[in-house]
């Protein structure tokens, strides 16, 4: 989780929301850059994977209704895809549209769809279930709630405006009709575009710069690591990716008792700017062999950044694109807050799994976090013009 986000997935995009006087009804003004930014629905990959982090997010999993099968799933994906295309263009969805987002533009809205392992058995498509959807191994630090894990279908919604994001969530729920019911739903957020003086990598709720070590789209092997190539055993997944979703609660009361210097030792990076403890800037490579005057490693051997580094895991890498969450304060005053961890990779067995196994064995951050929910979803490639998401699976 500590390397969530990417150098290329930065917050603080240019522009900011226009301020309106509460009593003025002057002439209309153009949408700000935040409101006017749109993301195409069609393309080789689904939207919501490589786009910059958005200010607001919703994750929701559905289970197909009893008796619903392949036919009903195909009809559902047609409805969802048609609705998502309109929503991402900033347009209302039919005459029954609630009007929640009526005054806004698309606001970088993305709607991303995925299938869980259980989807294939319920639709008679077990032979087309990818082996990459085999259950994730158990980790000793897991405290997973089955009711908030997995699901037949998964939808990720992100936007730079909370009302636009909610409108999309509500529309997707209504369009499910009788074919599927919500299994679980989670809400997240990030820093709003324009909130910083210049674009910069996100911070998580621990105050750490969180997103430095991600693979970058400019890397020559980026597509190989993140997207499923054509010609695989499941052709319908070409251009797709696998999403590992984890609700990671941060034990903030314990974390905030640590002095900043100790927090930096746990992470292996400076809190102020995200630079490695071995020096330089945020993007400077860590010198994992460097020792201090006392002869000890400058970046401790159990530091989160060291253990999760690709060079420490046989090159294993994921594109981490998370949201923070805060779901209230408990009776004991403890905040229910943390990270909605979302990691994208061409194969979770070579991406997420080896890194998490190593973190599970001795990460200094482990005492301050708790994995409370988990899911793994196959996210097909983007639909071509005239296609709906998953059509190559459901109609093959």
Can you put this structure into words, describing what you see?
- It is a single chain.
- The protein is of the alpha+beta class and 396 residues long.
- The protein has one domain (35-394).
- It is 20% helix and 18% strand.
- The protein contains ten helices and nine strands.
- It has helices spanning 33-36, 70-88, 117-122, 162-176, 222-226, 252-255, 260-267, 304-308, 352-360, 391-394, and strands at 56-64, 110-115, 153-159, 180-189, 241-250, 319-320, 323-329, 335-345, 369-379.
- Strands 5, 6, 7, 8 and 9 form a five-stranded antiparallel sheet that branches. It has a four-stranded antiparallel sheet with strand order 2-3-1-4.
- Helix 2 packs antiparallel against helix 4.
- It is globular and about 70 Å long.
- The protein starts with 32 loop residues before the first helix and ends with a helix.
- The model is unreliable at 1-28 (pLDDT under 50).
- Its cofactor is heme b.
User: How far do the termini sit from each other?
Assistant: 37 Å
Shape: globular
Helix segment count?
Answer: 10
Number of domains: 1
Q: How do the helices and strands follow one another from N- to C-terminus?
A: HEHEHEHEHEHHHEEEHEH
Look at the helices and sheets and give the structural class. alpha+beta
What's the overall average pLDDT, rounded?
Answer: 92
How do the helices and strands line up, and which of them pair or pack?
Blueprint (H helix, E strand, L loop, with lengths): L32 H4 L19 E9 L5 H19 L21 E6 L1 H6 L30 E7 L2 H15 L3 E10 L32 H5 L14 E10 L1 H4 L4 H8 L36 H5 L10 E2 L2 E7 L5 E11 L6 H9 L8 E11 L11 H4 L2
Antiparallel strand pairs: 1-3, 1-4, 2-3, 5-8, 5-9, 6-8, 7-8
Helix pairs in contact: 2-4
């Amino acid at each position: 989780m500590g390397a969530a986000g990417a150098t290329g997935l930065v917050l603080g995009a240019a522009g900011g929301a226009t301020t309106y006087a509460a009593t003025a009804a002057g002439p209309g003004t153009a949408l700000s850059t935040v409101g006017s930014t749109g993301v195409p629905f069609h393309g080789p990959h689904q939207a919501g994977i490589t786009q910059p982090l958005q200010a607001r997010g919703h994750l929701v999993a559905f289970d197909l209704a009893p008796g619903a099968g392949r036919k009903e799933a195909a009809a559902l994906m047609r409805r969802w895809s048609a609705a998502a295309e309109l929503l991402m263009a900033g347009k209302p969805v039919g005459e029954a549209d609630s009007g929640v987002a009526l005054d806004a533009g698309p606001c970088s809205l993305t709607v991303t769809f995925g299938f869980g392992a259980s989807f294939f058995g319920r639709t008679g498509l077990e032979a087309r279930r990818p082996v990459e959807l085999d259950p994730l191994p158990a980790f000793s630090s897991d405290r997973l709630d089955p009711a908030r894990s997995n699901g037949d279908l998964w939808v990720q919604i992100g936007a730079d405006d909370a009302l636009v994001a909610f409108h999309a969530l509500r529309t997707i729920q209504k369009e499910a009709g009788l074919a599927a019911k919500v299994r679980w739903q989670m809400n997240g957020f990030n820093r709003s575009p324009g909130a910083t003086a210049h674009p910069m990598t996100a911070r998580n709720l621990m105050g750490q710069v969180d997103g430095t070590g991600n693979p970058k789209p400019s890397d020559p092997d980026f597509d190989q690591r993140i997207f499923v190539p054509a010609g695989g055993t499941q052709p319908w997944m070409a251009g797709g990716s696998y999403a590992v979703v984890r609700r990671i609660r941060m034990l903030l009361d314990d974390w905030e008792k640590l002095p900043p210097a100790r927090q930096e030792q746990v992470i292996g990076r400076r809190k102020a700017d995200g630079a490695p403890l071995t020096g330089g800037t945020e993007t400077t490579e860590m010198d994992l062999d460097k020792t201090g005057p006392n002869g000890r490693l400058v970046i401790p051997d159990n530091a989160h950044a060291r253990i999760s580094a690709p060079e420490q895991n046989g090159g294993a890498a994921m594109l981490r694109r998370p949201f923070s969450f805060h779901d209230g304060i408990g009776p004991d005053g403890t905040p229910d807050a943390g990270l909605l961890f979302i990691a994208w990779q061409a194969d979770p067995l070579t991406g997420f799994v080896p890194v998490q196994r190593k973190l599970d064995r001795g990460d200094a951050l482990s005492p301050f976090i708790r994995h409370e929910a988990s899911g793994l979803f196959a996210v097909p490639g983007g639909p071509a013009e005239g296609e709906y998401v998953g059509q190559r699976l459901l109609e093959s």
